[in-house]
């Protein structure tokens, strides 16, 4: 049986991440953030049942942003860690710790994976690499 208290907290967390994404980010980040909340809600021990939901929301945005270069001014969209922390009223160290926990939990890394934005997927430099007789070669090596 699904715990009604968990469903209530999950809905609150979804609203928190949606609010930030709609104000500062884009639909891609919103979908990925909501996907992470849903996955957290399916864990045997639901992590967001303890602690402040604002910290969880900040950690989710930070974790997804970290692997998608959200904090790099040369990428769009761009948001600073300070913006996330200020929006949620969270300390930067706490947000970073929660983000690290989430990245470890879901084995998140740069360039690919289930939490990569469409832009990150398209700009993935590893998309141009393939193996020829066990040697990694860039498709730039061959004439087109």
Can you tell me about this structure?
This is DUF6398 domain-containing protein. It comes from Paenibacillus phytohabitans. It holds the Pfam family DUF6398. This protein has 144 residues and is mainly α. The protein has a single domain, classed as Orthogonal Bundle (Cyclin A, domain 1). The chain is 54% helix and 6% strand. It has a two-stranded antiparallel sheet. The longest helix is centred in the first third of the chain and has 21 residues.
The residue-averaged pLDDT reads 89
Per CATH, the architecture is: Orthogonal Bundle
CATH class label: Mainly Alpha
Number of helices: 6
> What is the count of β-strands?
2
Helices and strands, in order, run as HHHHHHEE
**CATH homology superfamily:** Cyclin-like
Determine the strand fraction and express it as a percent band: 5-15%
| Share of helix, binned | 40-55%
Query: What's the number of structural domains?
Result: 1
The third-level CATH topology is Cyclin A, domain 1
- The unreliable regions are none
For the biggest sheet, the summary is: 2 strands, antiparallel
Pfam family, one: DUF6398
Domain DUF6398: 13-116
Protein name: DUF6398 domain-containing protein
Protein topology:
Blueprint lengths: L3 H21 L2 H15 L11 H15 L13 H8 L3 H14 L12 H5 L6 E4 L2 E4 L6
Antiparallel strand pairs: 1-2
Helix pairs in contact: 1-2, 1-3, 2-3, 3-4, 3-5
Pfam family, one: DUF6398
InterPro entries: DUF6398
Protein name: DUF6398 domain-containing protein
């Amino acid at each position: 049986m699904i715990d009604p208290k968990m469903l209530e907290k999950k809905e609150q967390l979804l609203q928190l991440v949606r609010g930030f994404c709609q104000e500062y980010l884009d639909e891609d980040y919103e979908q990925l953030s909501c996907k992470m909340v849903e996955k957290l809600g399916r864990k045997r021990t639901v992590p967001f049942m303890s602690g402040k939901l604002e910290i969880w929301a900040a950690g989710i945005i930070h974790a997804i942003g970290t692997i998608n270069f959200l904090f790099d001014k040369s990428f769009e969209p761009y948001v600073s860690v300070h913006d996330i922390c200020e929006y949620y009223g969270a300390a930067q160290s706490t947000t970073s710790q929660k983000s690290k926990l989430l990245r470890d939990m879901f084995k998140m890394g740069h360039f690919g994976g289930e939490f990569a934005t469409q832009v990150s997927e398209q700009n993935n430099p590893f998309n141009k690499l393939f193996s020829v007789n066990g040697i990694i070669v860039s498709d730039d090596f061959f004439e087109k």
